[in-house]
Amino acid sequence: MIDDALLEAAKIYARERLSAKRYAHTLRVADTAERLAETHGIDPKKARLAGLLHDAAREVGKGELLRAAGEDGLVVGEFERERPILLHGPVAAQFARRDLGVKDGEILAAVRAHTTGEPEMGPLALTLFVADKIEPEREGPGVEDLRELARKDLSRSAHGALQDSLSHNEERGCPAHPKSLETLRWLENSGEGGVV
Length: 196
Ligand SMILES: [Fe+2]
Ligand SMILES: [Fe+2]
Prior knowledge:
Layout: H1 4-17, H2 20-40, H3 44-53, H4 62-71, H5 78-82, H6 88-100, H7 105-113, H8 123-134, H9 143-152, H10 154-171, H11 178-189
Helix pairs in contact: 1-2, 1-3, 2-3, 2-8, 3-7, 3-8, 6-7, 7-8, 8-10, 9-10, 10-11
The structure holds fe (ii) ion (2 copies).
């Protein structure tokens, strides 16, 4: 059970660590995740907490991200060494545990997986992943469709969001993270008869 004091502490924690712009994004993600959770019968307070904490390590420097990941025994591959910002989810989960005493495995897994996705990610992780991509200020050609889809089917919406971010990365010449590709394949094969 998530109490309101913890939600308030998480809000302050995020505010202290983020620029005004990113903090505002964080609040929108928390609201979006909470509403999506209500729609899909997922614990809304857990979704809100995951939303409040998801980007808490987003403004941590590269060196510190790598150091924190190393301390936590996280596997830091070549991909992450070149782009330490990809570690901001796993490191945010570490901070949540260490600084706020969050022990709930679903919340920590959701925060950890919010950037690349993760095969076998659970409903809460899908909720956060989608909320991050469809919060009200997100713009882009497919976002409105993703919003509509999210109300009906989180897996399909996550699949669309992941496809969009992979093609966006491709346009910018950024290689796809292997975990994102694995997640895409997993989403294609999960659910009733698969997504596609
Ligand atoms: Fe993030
Ligand atoms: Fe975010």
